[in-house]
Write a structure and sequence with these properties.
The protein has about 80 residues and is an all-alpha fold. It has two domains: about 30 residues; about 35 residues. It is about 90% helix and about 0% strand. The chain has three helices and no strands.
Amino acid sequence: MNAFEFVIVIIILSFIYKLLSAWMRNRQFRGNDESANANAALMQQRLEQLEERVRVLERIVTDDRFELKQQFKDLAR
């Protein structure tokens, strides 16, 4: 076996390894549908909470009284 053949074998083995690892990961995720659904529901709930917090912060920042308080703070400096 010369050096060229050795390099080709190494490249082929690395491709086989990548294919097998991708196949195993895909197979593992398919088995966890319930877990994935629960995780998606949890993430959706968290997203809704964060959106509500952003809405509240937007209301506070756009309120006229907030601007007045900021002006007083700037004058105090």
